[in-house]
Amino acid sequence: MQFKSADACRFDILSLGEVMLRLDPADGRVRTARSFDVWEGGGEYNVARGLRRCFGLRAGLVSAFAKNEVGRLLENLILTGGVDMEFVKWMEFDGVGRSCRNGLNFTERGYGVRAALGTSDRGATAASQLKPGDIDWEHIFGELGVRWFHTGGIYAALSETTPEVIAEALQCAKKHGTVTSYDLNFRSSLWSAFGGKENCQRVNRSLAPFVDVMIGNEEDFTACLGLKVEGLDEQMKELPIEGYTKMIEQATSDFPNFQAIATTLRTVKTASINDWGALCWSDGELCQAVHRKNLEIFDRVGGGDSFASGLIYGFLKTGDPQQAVEYGAAHGALAMTTQGDTTMASVEEVEALMAGDSARVKR
């Protein structure tokens, strides 16, 4: 992949997507909670924040919020993470949220045999109402300059207009030499009322021709693009490398524009214990990250987004797919040891884990 010069660009990474207010009952359950911890989170945004806070890159967000106190809380949280909000649109609030509101996401971390659980409340949100022409992409990509643009399938599932906004952005990014990535991030709860898997595949396959780096797990690639991973069982007892190789052959046959394909590999033993790894194909080479057995999970939400941010950092820093997938897998593993959607890791911790460092106490 060829990257634009950092000196010629205002941003290293720009993400397009919705950011919700995450309400977390800590160790308890939503149904019995009396208090919540508050975070911000969104699949596409989490990637930009990880690249800013962990890896120190210049990150920006394209989104929209309702202009009320919840929106201002989200603004405060995002600015604390260091992500630029210049391209966030503020929409007038009608007082009750009939026409425009900010999304909420109630999230349980899960523990042992009790799975993590997310309940979103995001109808009629400001970000879902963005439409083509609302964002001056020519100014962003043509005048200011962006090295890498990231978006994904969660935002594509929010309304009839969000896929059109994504297409407009991707095409403009490509026109100006910006590398593009897309995390499929299949969410059945979003697509069930939006045409199901049939429409999911129609939308994602229409956007895929404008994507350089396609990211997802095995379910994402099958549900969103209609690809198959042969030899895959529900428990993922062994890594079906041959199956993934054939899936990649299908993907590059259908979409020869893909310069890289990256997928996380996760065996869910309990909500608290997972095996965790990743693969990355680029330029005919299939690279596998260190596969971490029995990884202890504190909060799995956002692990895939942190994988994506590490992967992007690895490509921008080294251009080497093996290094990129190692950065991604290590960062995703560390992100799942802390609460909230977004990373609390440092680049030094990521690189130490990549080098085989232990969890022995450091003083």
Number of helices: 12
Which class do the helix and strand fractions yield?
A: alpha/beta
Q: Name the average pLDDT.
A: 94
Radius of gyration: 19 Å
Beta content: 15-25%
**Main sheet overview:** 10 strands, mixed
- The helix/strand order is EEEHEHEEEHEHHEHHEHHEEEEHHH
**For this structure, what is the CATH class?**
Alpha Beta
DSSP strand tally: 14
- Compute the separation of the termini in Å: 41 Å
The H-level CATH homologous superfamily, spelled out, is Ribokinase
Stretches where pLDDT is under 50 for at least 5 consecutive residues are none
Query: What is the fold named in CATH at topology level?
Result: UDP-N-acetylmuramoyl-L-alanine:D-glutamate ligase
Reported CATH architecture: 3-Layer(aba) Sandwich
| Amount of helix | 25-40%
**Shape verdict:** globular
- How many domains make up the coordinates? 1
Set down the secondary structure blueprint.
Layout: E1 11-16, E2 20-24, E3 37-41, H1 43-53, E4 59-66, H2 69-80, E5 84-91, E6 104-108, E7 117-121, H3 137-144, E8 146-152, H4 153-156, H5 162-175, E9 179-183, H6 188-191, H7 196-207, E10 213-216, H8 218-225, H9 241-254, E11 260-268, E12 273-282, E13 285-288, E14 292-296, H10 303-318, H11 321-335, H12 347-354
Parallel strand pairs: 1-4, 1-8, 2-6, 4-5, 8-9, 9-10, 10-11
Antiparallel strand pairs: 2-3, 6-7, 11-12, 12-13, 12-14
Helix pairs in contact: 1-10, 3-5, 5-7, 10-11, 11-12
Could you explain the architecture of this structure?
The protein contains 12 helices and 14 strands. The chain is of the alpha/beta class. The protein has a single domain, classed as Ribokinase (UDP-N-acetylmuramoyl-L-alanine:D-glutamate ligase). Helix 1 (about 45-55) packs across helix 10 and helix 5 runs parallel beside helix 7 (about 195-205). The longest helix has 16 residues, at about 305-320. The radius of gyration is 19 Å and the shape is globular.
